[in-house]
Structure formats: structure tokens, C-alpha cells
Queue: 2 jobs
Job 1
Amino acid sequence: MSEHVYKTVELTGSSAASPEDAVRRAVERAAKTVRNMRWFEVVGTRGHIEDQKIAHWQVTIKVGFTLEGA
Amino acid sequence: MSEHVYKTVELTGSSAASPEDAVRRAVERAAKTVRNMRWFEVVGTRGHIEDQKIAHWQVTIKVGFTLEGA
Amino acid sequence: MSEHVYKTVELTGSSAASPEDAVRRAVERAAKTVRNMRWFEVVGTRGHIEDQKIAHWQVTIKVGFTLEGA
Amino acid sequence: MSEHVYKTVELTGSSAASPEDAVRRAVERAAKTVRNMRWFEVVGTRGHIEDQKIAHWQVTIKVGFTLEGA
Amino acid sequence: MSEHVYKTVELTGSSAASPEDAVRRAVERAAKTVRNMRWFEVVGTRGHIEDQKIAHWQVTIKVGFTLEGA
Amino acid sequence: MSEHVYKTVELTGSSAASPEDAVRRAVERAAKTVRNMRWFEVVGTRGHIEDQKIAHWQVTIKVGFTLEGA
Amino acid sequence: MSEHVYKTVELTGSSAASPEDAVRRAVERAAKTVRNMRWFEVVGTRGHIEDQKIAHWQVTIKVGFTLEGA
Amino acid sequence: MSEHVYKTVELTGSSAASPEDAVRRAVERAAKTVRNMRWFEVVGTRGHIEDQKIAHWQVTIKVGFTLEGA
Amino acid sequence: MSEHVYKTVELTGSSAASPEDAVRRAVERAAKTVRNMRWFEVVGTRGHIEDQKIAHWQVTIKVGFTLEGA
Amino acid sequence: MSEHVYKTVELTGSSAASPEDAVRRAVERAAKTVRNMRWFEVVGTRGHIEDQKIAHWQVTIKVGFTLEGA
Amino acid sequence: MSEHVYKTVELTGSSAASPEDAVRRAVERAAKTVRNMRWFEVVGTRGHIEDQKIAHWQVTIKVGFTLEGA
Amino acid sequence: MSEHVYKTVELTGSSAASPEDAVRRAVERAAKTVRNMRWFEVVGTRGHIEDQKIAHWQVTIKVGFTLEGA
């Protein structure tokens, strides 16, 4: 069980609500095509400003998942 | 339109409420003197502890804005 | 007063609720054994994914506190 | 529109002509299999030397593209 | 020949035996789905501790491979 | 003469032509409001992709200039 | 179970035999005073050279352990 | 009082005497145009060599100051 | 003798006089509770500004010491 | 053939024309004293500004070459 | 004795056997031309893949040695 | 004059007196074998502790010098 191989992909989620919500959206989207997700790591937090206000947050994460048949 | 020049300034907002609120306060304050803000990037999250509890969050951001007449 | 010596320890708090809550839990736990905490700095934000959803956030902070008798 | 999810892939293009051409080749090759590319970021510039001269440039970029159906 | 385009993927291999073995397992697993692998770079070495002993090593590598038809 | 004080500002120039041209545009724009510029350092090279091609380069530089009356 | 608080300490193990052995020695020594160790991360590999040969390896690790009563 | 907004500027002071003196000169020069300075951080120490000796030190600092009316 | 295990702690000393003095104060304070100190490494130099002048320097060091009984 | 030993030296080339030309000049100059150069890596791009225009580019590279008789 | 001056050179050793062996080869080769080597630090671990297997490891080290007559 | 090629070497000076003195010693020693030194950059400050006090400072610098005949 300790000898799995994991792959990491880098995703950026965006949300008008909060950085946490941006991460959740990225994980939800990944769930459609990637199985066995195990962890994430936040590698950058940015955002767009429109009309002098924060319009949305953009959070970049690395998501690790188990490769089957390792 | 793609050939603008942008300037970046570094600001630290603080808030007793949350790191997001600290970013919002920094962007609001910047809006008083800077026009055409376009994006921000979080470059550090710190905080002060008083009486053994989090007293306020301090979030440092870089804010980019379009320079007019480029 | 300006000539204190501070020590920094590195802690990781975890929370199913939010990254802020993970930081708060780390500070609360530290308060049981460390006195005179003064500041913290977030040095990493990670999380575990279970059943394709974020199960909990893990935030690593450095906490600085004044050493007495410096 | 602001709530897309993006994926980033890392590519290295090479060119005997120039580093810009190396980036262009990487983007062109990516266009064969990836849709909706939006931005790139240069993360490293290297090159091979043969017969004591620069034989080709190797530029590594991260390319971000919109994931459909986010 | 010098004008290939390469792609890099990030993998984490694990092994109870040694960090080298963890790398070998990651490369072996990648060989099942990726062709034309050319190089790897170690980007992190971690491990799990169980019963106060090293239970297994986890080594994260970037693996570069030639994209065909560049 | 060796005891000047310099200030650094961070600018991002963009250009459809090349990264060098993006730097030149940033320096030209800065020349309108900053005197005594002395050096620059490239701190990031990015770009936008439209219709699967590089639409423009965005190069971020730090520009140092002498403060008068130091 | 997911809401533990962890502490990290930084140790350097040394060994004439190999870097792996240096890590093992650091973990063994830590086991004398720290309970509930969970993971380690290698943060630096150095060594001493004597008589023009590698005399011993010095590997610095961060070791994370669960704080009880969190 | 905890909810100020701070701005950071980057300055390089130079001095034939010492790196400390270079920092002092940068802070003194900044005092002519910036109010409410609160802290600085050294981000680089360089120097020029003339006639095979250190001619002057150049120390780059970030200076943080409170923005009024935040 | 080459197979010791070392522990590193992170301390910040402060001094109105100079950064060197700040380091000395941190080492002196550490000497009260830590035995067998062997080396230090400067990891950050900051300071506070009061009345537009440097009020004190704050230097953060990592201090390494031999763990007995390794 | 795979068991060579390489040495790396750090050079800065400068050119009024372009950053590529600055790299070429550094490689050409190195060719006068170093044999068997194999690769280079760009580690920094800077430039001097005179009369408010880019006067020349300065590009720092690491150059790797095979040590004979390894 | 404490007031020596040291020089650091950067070498890359390669070995089909293991990363440790790659370091040993680099140190052995350096011993032919450099005297008084004192320490090394691993700054990068890479490798080549041939026929979908690790063909050899390439480890880059910095080697420090005492300059005589300092 | 602007199209010189520079080489950088890495040196560590040590001094019981101060970090500045350690840098001066490194530059003085380099002057015995290197001509046309132009600048230095501090890349690390460490020190040895003996009998619980700072025994000497060790400062690592990169020294740049003009290569003749470029």
C-alpha cells in the first residue's frame, strides 16, 4: 500500500466568492476526469480587479492522485 | 490594446476578520490613489497574536494597474 | 523593549472547515505550551482529498514568541 | 465567465534560431492536442553547445488552457 | 533532431527500500503510458514514519519525454 | 558619486513583436515620468495566447533610477 | 482524526555510509525524545571531504510529529 | 489601529563605509518624501570593487510605511 | 565523531546598535538553554523604523547544536 | 560515455543588440579558454539604461563543459 | 585557522549505479586538480532515461576548498 | 566598453571580527590571482560557534571580473 505511484497536475480555479471556493471548484472539475485524488497544495493566489474591486480570485493548486496499476 | 504598460505596487492590508478582508482593504485603499487596477497577487500572509489569539491578519499583495498614455 | 530575542516554531494546523480555522487551531494548541506568542507567518497551504472532495485543509505556519530573560 | 478552471502543462520547445522561436514551436505543437490555450509563462531557458557554438535553444514554458465544462 | 518539443510530467514514487528505488518505480510506472522518456529531475524527497521508523521514501520527479510529430 | 540612493519600480511591458520589444516599451513609458534610470532586471516573461497562437509577450522588469538630492 | 496539530523540527543526521543512513540516524535519535513522528522531508544534502575523499554525508530533514491533546 | 494599509517601496543605498551605513542612507533619503515609515527588510547586499578593493557597499531594502486614510 | 545528530532552532535577535549585535544577542540568549551550539546561518535581516530613523535591527538566524547521545 | 564529470562556470555577456547576442558573446569568449562545452542555462537578464534608453543587455549564463580524463 | 578563504566550484558527476556514486566520481575527478577540498553540497539530482529505464544519474554538487596563502 | 564578458567566482571569507571583514578578506585573497574585479554579491552569511560564542563569521560572495580579450 505504501508503494503507490502518484501523479500531480496543476490547476487554477476561479471564484467571485473566495479563494477557498476557487480551490473547491478546481477540485470539483478535476473529479470529472481524474480518479483517486489524494491531496492538493496551493501554489499561488491571484485575482482580477474590475471597477476598482476584486472581481474574482484565482487559486492555483497542484493535485496529486494515485496511478492505478503501479 | 495588447500593448499596454503596467505598473505593480506592493501593499499590505490588515484585518481582524480574515485574510480575504485584509486583501479587500488593501485594494479599497489603493483605489483612492491608483486608477485602472487590473490584478493582484498574494505574496505573503502573516498575522499578529495578542493574548495568545490571532489579533489580525496581514496580507501582502502586488497590485498591477495600467499606465495611461503608454 | 526593542532588544528581545524571539524563537520561531513551525506548526501545521488542520481543519475540515477552512484554512483560517486550521491556523486558529494551530495557534490555540501552541498556546498550551508556549507563552508570549507575537506573530505568525503562513508558509504552506495543503489539503487532503477524500471521495473526490476536500476533506480537510492543512496550513503550516511559523509562530514567533518572545523568549523571557533575554 | 470568470469562474473557469484552467489546467497548466509544462513544455520545452527547442530551436536553432532563437528562444522566441523555441517558445513558438512549443505552442504550435501543443495546439495539436490542447484546445483553448490562454497564456504561457517562461520557466527556464537553456541551450546545447556543439563545436563551441550555440546549437539550439531550449525554452521551458508552462501553458495554461481553459478546461471545458467546468 | 534538435528541434523536438518535450513535455514534462510530475510523478511521486514510493518505496520502503530507498529513494533510488522510489525513483525507479515512478519511471517504471510512467513507462506504461508515456513513450520516449528522456530525462528526470528530482524535485523533492520526503518519507513516512511509522512506529518511529522510516516506513517508506517518497520521491517526486519531473519526467521529460519527446512529443511525437512536433 | 558612489553614495547615491536608488529606487526600483516594477513594470510590465507588452508587445506582439518580441520580449525585447516589450522591455523597450516599458522603459520608454517609464521615461515619461521617471528621470535618471540606470538599470533594469527581467523578473518574469509571460504571454497571452489567442486563436492558439502567441498574441503578445508580457515581460516584467524592475527598473532602478537615481533619487536626486540623496 | 483529521484535525490534529503537527510540529516540525529540523535535524541533521550524518553518516560515513550514505545519505539514507544519515536520515535514518536523525530519525532514530529523534525517536528518543519525540513521540508520534509522522513524516520527514529532506531539505539539504551536504558532506565533509577529508584527504580528498567523502568522509561523511550530512542530510538535513524536517520531521513532523503529532502534538497530543490538540 | 490594527487595520492599517501599508505600502512597500524598494530602495538601494550605497556607502563606502559599511552595509549598515548604506541602509541608513536609504532610510534617510526616503524620509524626505515618505511619511510614517515602519519597517525595512534587507533583500540584497552587493558592492563595487575598484582597484581590487571594495569601493562601496550597495544594500537593497524594502521599506514599509503606513498609508494615511486607510 | 563524524556521526553526530544536530538540531536547528530559529531565533531572532534585535539590537539598536547593529545587525552583528542582534546576532550576538540571539546566540547569548540561546546559550542559557541550549548546549553544544556549533554554527549559525543568517536567514533574514529586518528592522523597525521610528521617527523616520532605524530604531533597531532584527536578524533571524538558524542555530545548529549537537544532540547528545546520538 | 555516460559517466563524464562536468564543470560549470558562470559568465555574463553583454550586447547592445539583444539578449541572444549577449549569450553568444559569452559563449564565444569562453571558447577561447574552455574546451568541450556542452550546455548553458540562462540565470539572469539585466541591462543598463543610458539617456533613458536601453544601452546594453547583460545576460548571465552557467556554461557546462566536460572535464577530460574523468 | 578560522580565517581561511574558500573557493567553491560547481561539478556534475554521473553514474549508472547510484546518485552517491555520481557524487563520488565528481569528488574523485576534482581531486586531480584541486587541493584541500573541505565540503560539498548537493544542488541538483537529475538523470537520463534510455529505453524507458534510468540509464544514469547526474548529480550536481558545489565543492568548497581552502585557498592557500589567504 | 559595454560589450565585455564577465566571469563570476564564488568565495567564502571568514573573520573573527565581523561579516564585513570576512568579505574584505575574500576580496583581498582573490586580488592575488584575479584581475579586473568589478563587483560582488553576498549570497550567504554563516558562522561558527565555539564555547557558546560566535568564533568567526563566514560570508560567501560571488565576485565578478572582466575577462580580457572578449
Job 2
Amino acid sequence: MSEPTTHGAGQDGRRTGREGRPTLAVVGATGAVGTVMLGILSQREDVWGEIRLVASARSAGTRLRVRGEEVVVQELAAEVFDGVDVAMFDVPDEVSAQWAPVAAARGAVVVDNSGAFRMDPDVPLVVPEVNPAQARNRPRGIISNPNCTTLTMMDALGALHHGWGLTALVVASYQAASGAGQPGVDRLYDELAVVGGDRSLGQRSGDVRGALEDKLGSAPSPFPAPLALNVVPWAGSLRDGGWSSEELKVRDESRKILGIPDLKVSATCVRVPVVTTHSLAVHATFQRSITVAEARQALVEAPSVVVLDDPEQGDFPTPADVVGADPTFVGRLRQSKDFPDTIELFVCGDNLRKGAALNTAQIAELVAAELTDA
Amino acid sequence: MSEPTTHGAGQDGRRTGREGRPTLAVVGATGAVGTVMLGILSQREDVWGEIRLVASARSAGTRLRVRGEEVVVQELAAEVFDGVDVAMFDVPDEVSAQWAPVAAARGAVVVDNSGAFRMDPDVPLVVPEVNPAQARNRPRGIISNPNCTTLTMMDALGALHHGWGLTALVVASYQAASGAGQPGVDRLYDELAVVGGDRSLGQRSGDVRGALEDKLGSAPSPFPAPLALNVVPWAGSLRDGGWSSEELKVRDESRKILGIPDLKVSATCVRVPVVTTHSLAVHATFQRSITVAEARQALVEAPSVVVLDDPEQGDFPTPADVVGADPTFVGRLRQSKDFPDTIELFVCGDNLRKGAALNTAQIAELVAAELTDA
């Protein structure tokens, strides 16, 4: 932990009563997740001393507000990690791969939200409601935050696994544009501005594609097909056997987080024209016989899960209602009619909050508590 | 079959060379499916004598074009079925329930696209590529056309079942607005006109709902939640155990069409902001060992299936590319890593064409051929 005389003051030098608290660096502070992170850091109980904001050279010098104070964004460099206790990384895989070890070497515990280290056996993959103890076992000084699609269902499945022993998952996702970062959000808004108000589109093959090319020209999209008035069954990059990297993350990360190395998982990941909040249709099979009533009770009791399940009254989770909230929302609970010991559920979670920034903040707070206790 | 002297003339009395051909009635000619049907009847090989267009009193008197000719829409009444050989019904369940038996009693073979008769053991449920012989076994004089969600995957699954013996399906749907008819299409366009161009929406709980209420007031929606910038995990009405009627249709109709009474099926049906074309993520398990290469070959050889499966080149089916086309499009073929004898696929089909009007037209043509041969 850093010396309070060096790191206990606010960015502007005012004494803030934060002496003795750990210093936090937020790397990628200007991105989609970073922006949400600054809001979360301002809302949650403040456990931090100094908070340093770090980004690429392009964004360095920007002034951003966190905890009600203006902070100047610093350029990513080895020196910014000097005296940092915890460094959150919300940056692309290759940036994390290069810089997380640099931060760790300078003494920071890194909480990384990229895919660079998640399957490294020396890096724990942590959901604080599910496997908090894993956060202390970090031989490389790095803790990984799971992929947002996987994270969306982990709180709910962790609660059910605890009681009934999860054995298999068949998952189909409805993933929001912001899973592809701010460029994804920008692109969806650009596309909606083109199609909104044109009542002829979406009725002939290629007409949406044509309208977007007409109006947006060759502006690059992070999506491999139109997203407005469409769904796109692809996220990530191609892996062996025709799987997308996103689909394999759901499988491999679920196994690691839940501690079930032989968990059977098949996932199909599909992007939908939603700004933020991922949804998942989950078919979950258990070792022990489970009823919907039992599953509902376990989910109601899970601290970070909200059950919304009265379809006749219109009560089920949807992204438009869930976005901006911290919990995982679960609805459409059904006992499978034909598959034994199997429950169907529909899960929604804000992919920028619990799916990314919130879980990262929760992990960082676990580390802060550990450092403060030590 | 009707007398050529009575029914062999066009609506306008011109001789059309259609003498001796069966008379067709299209009931629900002005609806979303009916409109597509008139296009399909104009494009396909013309096997019909007279085509009568029938609709509710509200639409009677409208003039519509079919086969290049203008036809006056008649009001639904028992007498319109006199001399009709085949009557297609594209109307709500309760209208079919009342009027299909009336048409059958007047001698017409009814091809009904509602849910009213699909599970009646005396009514065959037909997909011409899968179970065409069933169309001849119609003790009530009624043949049912399957639900559009089920129908989207039947051609592909029929081809795979033929080779490997289907035993189980886990399905998640991405259903288009037009599955709820023209009111669904209108509502989606209305909502997109509100949200398109507003780059603030979709980021806070309820902001889309609020904007729609602001701009659209209390205008009724066929959807139980906003559809723009959202996905809605509900279609149909509530059944026992929290299932939606749509989800049970996928189970019960798949069993009946494929002739597998003990087929295991779990479906989750979700509406997405797409105008037309349903998509399905399908996890299909077979009796016999199956490889992706074998599945691909069988699908390529299926006459009504197109395989689009080279994700690195952006080749996978999406609704925006598939809408308006007749075949079923299949992509994202993967061998399940953990479930034996299981293939994952993503299927797209135009829910107004193969999912409704086209399949109805194909069934009607089977009957026409039978009547002409007789």
C-alpha cells in the first residue's frame, strides 16, 4: 500500500480525509466502460485515496470528473503506476497484455477487464458474489474480470449451482452494441438515425444495407453486418470449428468462475440493436432435482439478483428496463418439460456495469479491503 | 373440383385460359400475410382458376392486384365459399375457428394459417418439404400451416432428421415484429421514428419507455414492452408453468410435423426489433453420430435450404439479408464441444413467406395437384 504522505491527497492537492487509503489507477478512463466506471466510483462507498485517470496519448490532458472532483487524464506510461496500489484496466486485449505486467511489476494489483489473462492458470477470474476468495490467489499480481456475456449470468447461476450442482448450459445471447465499446454505441446510433422514420426498410433483402451505405458511406462499423433492424450472429473472432471467440469465452470462463472443469456448455452469441444490457436465454441442467419454486427462492435470496417473473402482468426483464441498474435481473423461469433437472431462464444485466465496470470495482474493493487489513 | 363453366373465368369475366383449374379463396387478403400471399400467387407458377379475395367487412370493396389483375375484396360470408376448391385462411385464431369449418362444409379444402386447428389429431400439419403425404389425410377438410417460428427451422431440421434421427432441440428465437401482423410492423416503425436520431436513449432504465409514451401517447402496442432498442422475451399468451403459447407451439408442432412424438424440446421465444424474418439459435441432438461436414452436406442438398457459413468472410444469415427470399438460410454450423451427437446452427427464414404465405401456397398447390389429378 502506498505512503499516505505521497498518495493521500486529491489530484488538486486538497486534503480529502483519504490519507492511508489505497491509490487507484483507472486505465482506459475515457472509453465506454471507463466512463461508466467513473460514475460507479462516484456512487459507491469511497475506499480510495488518490484516483489517477490514465488513457492513450490521444485522450491525455482531458479533464474528467470523479467523486465530484476534476482529474486530468494522464498518458499511459510505466511511471503512472508508481505508488499505485490497484490498477483497473478497461482497454483492448493487446493494451492489457503489454501494460498490465508493467503495472504489476511496479507493485500495483491489476484488475483487468480484457480477455488477455482470463484463462491464465496464474490469474484468477473473479465474480465477488461467486468466488471472492480467488481474488487473493494472484501469483502474477493480476486478477481478471470476466467477459461481459459470461458475467451477465454468473450471479444467478452461481446461486443455483450452490444449491443444485450445475452440469450443463445451453445459452443464446442477445448482446448489446456497447459490448463492442463506444464505437459500437456510436455505430448503432448512426444506423438508427438512418433507418428511423423510413417505413420502407427491412422488407427486402439488402435494403437496410443499401440505405446504410447510402447515408453512412464507407464509415467503418465494428459489426460485420447492419445492426439496426437486424440481428448479427457473430461477436469476436473466428476460432476452430466455426466457434466465435465470444462463444468459447462463455464456455471456458463459466467453467473457471464456477469451478466446474467439466461443465458442458454450448453458446450462440448474437448481437442485437440494443445500446446497453446483454440478455441471455439459458437452459441450465443440474445434478440434483430442482423445481422452479426452489430456483426462484434461491434467486430471490441471492443478494445481487432481482427476480421479475409475472409475464401476465408484463413482468420480465428487458434491456430497456434494466440498463443502468446494478443487479442481474432474471425472469421467465420455467421447468423444462422434456429435459430432466433442467430450468429455463431469461437473464438481463447491464454489460457496462455488472458486466464490466461494476464487477471490476467490486474486485478492486476486495483488494483494497485486503490491503487495508494487512 | 369446381365446374369450369362457373369458375374458369377471371374476376372481371375475361377468359384467362384458366378453365378447368381449381378456384382459390384467400381469406385475410388485406393482412400482413395476405399481402405477401398476393405477391407469391403472382410470382409462382399459376395453377389456379378464379382467385377470390376475402376479408372482414372493414376491408370489403378494396381493390387489390393479384396475377396482374385487379380483384375486388369480398366480405367474409358462407356464400363466398360456394364453388371454392381451396380456401387459404390468414386470419386470427378465432376467425379461423369459426369460418374454416364453414368453408370446409361448403366443399373447400381449407389451408389454415392460424393456431386454431394445428394440434387437432384430425388436421394434418404440413411442411411440403418434410411431410407432404400428410396433406391427403384431412378428415375435417382442413390442413394446418405451422406457426412461423416452428416453420423457420423445419426444412433444415427435416433434412437432418431424415439422416440422423432428431431426439432433442433447445431453441432460442429472435422473432420479427411482423410475426404480430401489420400492427406489429406499424408499431415497430412508429417506435423507430421516435428513437432514431436520439443519441441519449437506451442508457437509463425506462428512458425508451418514457420517450415512446411522450411521443406515441397511449397508442396500443401488440408488444408488452418497447421493441425499439430492446428485446422482449414474450410472444403469445401465458400457459401453465410460465410457458408462452409460442414456446409450446415450437415444441408441439415440431413433434407433429417431424413425426417424433417424444422429441425433447425447450424453446425460449423473444421478440427483436426486426421488421420481418425470424431467426433461431438451434441446439439439435441426434440418435446417430453426426459431424458438421455431414450436416452441411445434407443441408446443401436440401432443395429449400441455403447454407451461408463462412464467418470470417462475414457469411452467416441475418434477417436484413434474408427478408423477401423463399429458402431457409442456415449458418454458424458447429459441432457441440460437450454434448454428444449435437450440432449448433443459426437459422433465418422470412416469417411472412416460408413462415406463412409461401408454405400455405405450397400446401394449397399440393391440394390443387391432387384435385387436378383426380
